[in-house]
Specification:
Layout lengths: L1 E6 L5 E7 L13 E6 L2 H15 L3 H4 L36 E5 L4 H12 L8 E3 L31 H8 L11 E4 L4 E4 L2 H10 L7 H4 L9 H16 L1 H6 L4 H21 L13 H17 L10 H4 L1 H13 L1 H4 L4 H11 L21
Helix pairs in contact: 3-5, 3-10, 7-9, 7-10
The structure holds glutathione.
Glutathione binds next to helix 3 and helix 5.
Length: 371
């Protein structure tokens, strides 16, 4: 049975047609009946908006192959749309069994949130769902749509794709369907889809529910904020987003400019890490976490796929390499949040404009060297 709705001009009613033969509804005159139901104008405009949305081509939002570069060939990332906080007295209160995190192991931004979630011991408070690395024309699929080892289903609504969650939260959503997504089960809403803000939420919002040894961990402490901000201010454009600007550039000029900026920023970080355990001396901060997720992907993916190949981390940056390996091998929050198979498969399979054959390279071996 299918149904069609038509607003009858000048009247606040919709004609609803029920068809028993969806393949040839107009031929099967005898099998449908008309019904008239009275709606308010608000309801009519809501329904019409919903119908218009469902008829729209969403692949422009979900298919990375259809993504357009700027006129000069450079890549510009869109700002995230949902920017709420979780705070006492706010719309989203810190509560047990209320929030859910949707991630991809492939995505560096999502991995930031996984690392802080682990470091702060929020595993039981904030359950996680993991998408398949095959980000195709409908965006990120859950295991229900693509059974990939390590991928899971959406336990809340049984969504097939991450885009279904965005439309559940906002039927008129017109942005990209990105991960991570911090979801509120109580109001069926996206709380926040910006990783840099989700990690700050995880850093403090749930402190009342976790043991003291986790509560005291602060990755954005007051006294270090200006220094952390200063680091983030060049590491984000130069490195985190710099590798994307390099890889998604569509002109030689845009590429050459972006790749130069990546390596200048890496040179700067290499100097900062000289004789230091972490970026700010002996204290692990969010600046390390934000940088690390890009560095761990650098040799396995960005050198080849995004053409960031002036040097590798392992052979060209001894201080960064040592810092990255130490975090991976000695802190399980970093290692457990890293899945090299998802990482490599995602980039090489999903970005067909860069790698049309979808062949996933075997090397480098190993993905990360031992300590
Ligand atoms: N600003 C966002 C960026 C998130 C983002 O771009 N995620 C990528 C995966 S690495 C994504 O989901 N892309 C899907 C798309 O653009 O269609 C954040 O930091 O959370």
């Amino acid at each position: 049975m299918t149904m069609s709705l038509r607003h009858i001009k000048g009247q606040n009613c919709l004609r609803i047609r029920f068809f028993s033969n969806p393949l040839s509804p107009h031929l099967s005159g005898a099998s449908f009946r008309n019904s008239f139901i009275r709606f308010s104008f608000t309801q009519i405009s809501k329904i019409s908006r919903h119908l218009a949305m469902s008829a729209k081509d969403h692949t422009l939002q979900s298919d990375i192959a259809k993504m357009k570069a700027e006129p000069d060939g450079s890549f510009k990332r869109r700002d995230s749309s949902f920017r709420n906080l979780i705070e006492k007295g706010g719309k989203y209160e810190p509560e047990k069994d209320r929030y859910h995190l949707f991630v991809s192991y492939a995505c560096p931004w999502a991995t930031r949130t996984l690392i802080v979630r682990k470091l702060k011991g929020l595993d039981d408070l904030i359950p996680v769902s993991v998408v398949s690395p095959h980000m195709g024309s409908d965006g990120w699929p859950f295991a229900s749509a693509d059974k990939y080892p390590g991928a899971t289903d959406d336990p809340l609504y049984g969504s097939q794709h991450v885009k279904d969650l965005y439309f559940k939260a906002d039927p008129g959503y017109d942005g990209r369907f990105t991960v991570p997504v911090l979801w509120d089960k109580k109001t069926h809403a996206v709380v926040n889809n910006e990783s840099s803000e989700i990690i700050r939420i995880f850093n403090t919002a749930f402190n009342d529910f976790i043991p003291d040894d986790k509560k005291v961990l602060d990755f954005y402490p007051n006294d270090l904020r200006p220094k952390i901000d200063e680091l983030n201010d060049f590491i984000y454009p130069g490195i985190n987003n710099g590798v994307y600007r390099t890889g998604f550039a569509t002109t030689q000029e845009a590429y050459s400019k972006a790749v130069k900026e990546v390596f200048e920023s890496l040179d700067k970080v290499e100097k900062i890490l000289e004789g230091n355990e972490y970026l700010l001396g002996d204290k692990l901060t969010e600046a390390d976490i934000r940088l690390w997720v890009t560095i761990i992907r650098f040799d396995p993916v960005y050198v080849g796929h995004f053409k960031c190949n002036i040097k590798t981390i392992r052979d060209g940056y001894p201080n960064i390499d040592k810092w990255a390996r130490k975090l991976y091998w000695t802190n399980s929050a970093f290692k457990d949040s890293t899945n090299f198979d998802h990482i490599k498969t995602h980039y090489y399979w999903s970005h067909t404009s860069i790698n049309p054959t979808r062949i996933v390279p075997v090397g480098p071996e190993p993905n990360i060297r031992p300590l």
